[in-house]
Amino acid sequence: MIRINKEFEVIHRFRNGESIRKISRDMDIDRKTVRRIRDRYQAGTDALDDAQNEKEIEAATEQLVLERKYDTSNRKKRTFTPEVEARMSELLEKEREKDRRLGPHKQALTAKAVYEILAEEGYAIKYRTVAHYWSKMKEKAKEAFIKQNYALGARVEFDFGEVKLEIEGVVKIYYLAVWASPASDYYWAYLYTNQKKAVFQDAHVRFFENLGGVYAELVYDNMRNVVTRFIGRNEKELNPQLIQLATYYGFNINVTNCFSGNEKGTVESRVKHVRQNCFTKKYQFQSLDEARQHLEESLRTLNQDSRLQEEKGHLLKYRPPFELAELCQLSVTKYATIHYQKNQYSVPDYLVRQRVQIKAYADYLVVYANEQEVARHNKIEGSHGFQLDISHYIKTLKKKPGALEHSLVLQQTPGLETLYHKYYSGHPKEFIEQLEKYQSLSGEALCQQLAYDQLVQRVTTENEGVPKNQEAILHQTEATLHQLNALYGLEESLC
């Protein structure tokens, strides 16, 4: 049994055409409350449909998937907890091992003995509860299966699978987010470096963008991005972020029973199929993007016989990409950095010791101060890393120019460090003045601009006092062209 947020259940029933009166009666909720939930959902979907720009889409999205809380004030404490069930399952497996070893015997572990074991281990549970569940666990019948036949657009199944690849010479485990439609025999996958909640959300957004529509029902197993926690034996509380996705896109959620992979057998087999057909023959890549491109091309071949084009006509209405970021407030350290998920990212140095707001997406994060964007960084994979922008430290460097030469921020931009040691070594103030002049540039563009300025200055110096005859001008022009080619990578690069 899935424990569904009450507001989400009202929305689900409303989408299925149930009246306010019926919803109120079945769920024992006041009609005014049902009407208020319905009206807010309808207003959110209308605002989303009428949105003309990204700002209006963002406002409508936040209205539609506003976080809701579960009411746990009246929930009774359960003694048959998941921990008790797990311990009893362990005892049952040992009992079966004993049966295999001894054959017919009269030393069966009784419910009373199980109760005594649990009591000695500190579990607060009554004998009758133990006897009831021990009997049910022992007498579990052989399972029968019912063959299913789904309509086009009705159902798609999701799962993560591992794949080991060598990228940039390093062997690591990567994760395939795999979708499979049992009706059309279509499947799609994307390669990630982890299985965190931002990746889980991103996999949905990319899949729906690829399709141009949404399936009526999405099927998952009991992964942590789907189920927040188990309550008793069969009750599950859904993850709030999944409820937000379902509310926004309008799909229904189906979570399989524990240890019942057969209930989403299509995607279970597709994970293996994708791994074997896409990464058995080729597993070495120069970059993650190259591996993703290889996966996309391989899937195109594997899906040639699917009925996807026919199924697209049965999908739910397309919506703009869901981009509700994770929001948080962080303090700026004395090094003008913020700590996010065990990594550090730079912000402008005037924000030291202040609080800033973060919007974190799957691959990048944006930093705001006083409602203005002040920094944007790609996320760092792993932990204890630094991503620093030298333009964030110009104010401090002007006061402490001697700190530049051995600074981590300079070392993180190899091209910039090379230019500094080649042209400005011993003259940090001059280099910092150039950084301030071009602080709107970053990365390769900044490196190219500084190298170009040095080139112009050198050419000017070399030609002071040289007669401006035609031959000298031609020679000068040819030399300048060679140096510009080198600057922009057409010949040996300067940075």
UniProtKB/TrEMBL annotation:
PROSITE patterns: INTEGRASE. Keywords: Coiled coil. The keyword Coiled coil applies. One of its GO terms (biological process) is DNA integration. Residues 285-312 form a coiled coil. Pfam families: HTH_23 (PF13384), Mu-transpos_C_2 (PF22483). Belongs to the transposase IS21/IS408/IS1162 family. This is Integrase catalytic domain-containing protein. The lineage of its organism: Bacteria, Bacillati, Bacillota, Bacilli, Lactobacillales.
